Amino acid sequence: MTDPRLAHATEFGRMYSRSLSQPPLVPSITTVIAQEAQDMTGWSGHMAATELINDTRLSSALGSPNDLRSLARHAAAAAERFRDAAAARGDRVHQYAEQVALSVLGHSADPGAARAVLAEHGEVRFAERFDHWWEQYQVTPIAAEVTVWNDAVGYAGTLDLVAEIGGRTCILDFKTKGLGRDGRAKPLRNSVVMQLVAGMRAEEMLVDPASGAWEPWPYRGDEGELPLLMAVAISEAEVVSVQANAEGLRAHWRKFWALRQVWEHSRAVAEQGHALRTLGPPPAAAEAV
C-alpha cells in the first residue's frame, strides 16, 4: 500500500486529514471497503499446515513437545508473513508504476531506481510486464497518485492513475497479483469496483498537502461521458486489464455508502467504551441469600 502524506494509521483504520497540520477526519476508501467481513480462516489454516509440513525441523521435533509447540507457533503466523511480504512487493510495484507515470508527466521521478529495487528482490519481471502493458495500451498519463476527497459521504483516498487510453479518460487501480496453478495472474476481487467508483465519485482533489489546498475533482462524469474505470492486475507472467461494468456502478456505490455507515457506527460504539458491565442481583435477592 502506498503512503500518501495526508494518510494516517489510527485505531479506526487508515484515515485522511485535510492538510499536514490537521488531524485525520475521514476514513480511507480501503478502510471503508474493509468493513465487509472476509472469511480467511480456511486460507490461514491451509497456509499454517503447509508451512508446518514443509518445515525441515519437523522430523527432529517429533519427540519434543516444546519443539513442536515452537514449530506450531511459527506455522500459525505463516499467513501473516505471506500477507506482509505480498504488501511489501505490491508497494515496490506501485512505486515503479508511479515513477513511470511521473516521468512521462515531466515531474521529478526515477523509474530506474524503482526498477533497481525490484531487481534486488528478484521482481524485475513485474516491471517488464508493466512496461509492455504501458506501450500496448498507449497510456497517456494525466495524474498519478491523486488524493481525492468526498465531503458529502465522508471519505478520502489516493488513486493510482488517471490517464487517457484509446481516446477515453480512465481511472485506474493497479493490483499486484501472484500466479495461480495455471501460471496466469490470479483474478481480481469484485470489491475493486467499489474502490474505483468511490474514486470517481470524489468531490475534490488535493493540490498542496502543506497548505491544505484542494480543487474540484473533474472526473465525476456529471457532465458528458463517464470515465472508464479500469483495474489492472500486474503479475510476473502477464498484465490483465478489466473494466468495471457501467450498469453495476450504482449498486456498488450504494454498497460502499452502506459500508461507510457501518464504519461510522462502529467507531461510535467503540468510543462509548465497554458495551457490557457486571450486574449483581437485586438487593432483596441478595439479602435472602
TrEMBL record:
Taxonomy, superkingdom: Bacteria
Protein name, as recorded: Cytochrome
Species for this entry: Nesterenkonia natronophila
